[in-house]
Amino acid sequence: MSNTRIELLKKVDVSKPAADKNYQQMIVTHTDLVNGKTDGKKLFDFTAKAVWGTLLAANPGDVFEVERKKNEKGYWEWIGISASTKAATDAAPQTATSPTTSAARPANAVGKATERVGSWETPEERALKQVYIVRQSSIANAIALLAVEGPGITPDVEWVIATAKTFENYVFDGVATLTNDQPE
């Protein structure tokens, strides 16, 4: 068992996962005041009976002492909750440091957009990184081609860049004309 202190960041969201389900779920967006991390916790009315009513009545800014224990799968379950106050020793909230941060969801808060919690890449950042990787590989392969075809080619930066762009276009578009790629 373990205790932690949380501060609610917004009113809890309660929903029914599906029309055929006879239980409700709650998303608790909060800051863990022990480590300063912003997080989201998904609770179900049938497993979180001890904390459900207290969290339903809670408002943003409310601080709670949460008693928790790990279940058989290794996840923290909230088994008790009591009102508390913020202490001078509480950790400051952590924020993402990436200059390209965008809205993302807190952990466990499926489909809920709030401030970015983690430092993982966005899909846009991942796509841009992939372009950089292909470009770097294309330049390396253009230089390797220069070494093989070297005697007949004037080695200059413009040739390497033009050849690398041809390779890059072939990877992304598949339409570049490569003279050595044509059947005889």
Radius of gyration: 27 Å
CATH class of the largest domain: Mainly Beta
Helix content: 25-40%
Low-confidence stretches: 97-107
Our count of helices gives: 3
- Briefly note the CATH topology name of the largest domain: OB fold (Dihydrolipoamide Acetyltransferase, E2P)
Number of domains: 2
CATH architectural grouping of the largest domain: Beta Barrel
Which class do the helix and strand fractions yield?
alpha+beta
First-to-last CA distance: 73 Å
The major beta sheet can be summarized as:
6 strands, antiparallel
Arithmetic mean pLDDT? 78
User: H/E series, N to C?
Assistant: EEEEHEEHH
- Proportion of beta-strand residues: 15-25%
Query: How many individual β-strands?
Result: 6
Q: What global shape is seen?
A: elongated
Question: Your description of this structure?
Answer:
- With 184 residues, the protein is of the alpha+beta class.
- 28% of the residues lie in helices and 23% in strands.
- The protein is built from 3 helices and 6 strands; from the N terminus they run E-E-E-E-H-E-E-H-H.
- Strands 1, 2, 3, 4, 5 and 6 form a 6-stranded antiparallel β-sheet that branches.
- The termini are far apart.
